[in-house]
Amino acid sequence: MPIKDFTHRVIGVCQAINKDGGIFSPDDEAVCQLLANQAGVMLKNSLQFDQTFVNHQKLIRLLKIGVDMFEASKLATLLYKAENGLTLWYSNSMN
Asked: Which residue, of 43, 50, 62, 64, is most buried by count of CB atoms within 10 Å of its CB?
């Protein structure tokens, strides 16, 4: 029995074998189909959760890069101001 996602794409297979006490009835097939439907929802949710986790990790890395860039720009500004201050001080001390 196919396991399908919400778009009806087959993402797995459910198999029932060796029924104790005879052959599978239409009710048995209906129960198996219900289980396959639920399995499809759970599998798709699991895949989406995994992708969300991966995207979250990527976002954290990007944010860290942004913070590092911001901190580097603050340092560059500080060094620029220090250089200008020292240049001005040196110029004034030579006069």
From this structure: 43
Burial 54-89 (b: 16+ CB within 10 A, else e): eeeeeeeeeeeeeeeeeeeeeeeeeeeeeeeeeeee
The pLDDT of residue 49 is: 95
Model pTM score: 0.60
DSSP state of 4: E
- Distance, first Cα to last Cα, the chain: 93
Residue 89 has pLDDT above 70, yes or no: yes
Two tokens, residue 12: 């797995």
- In 9-83, at which residue ranges do the beta strands (DSSP E only) sit? 10-13
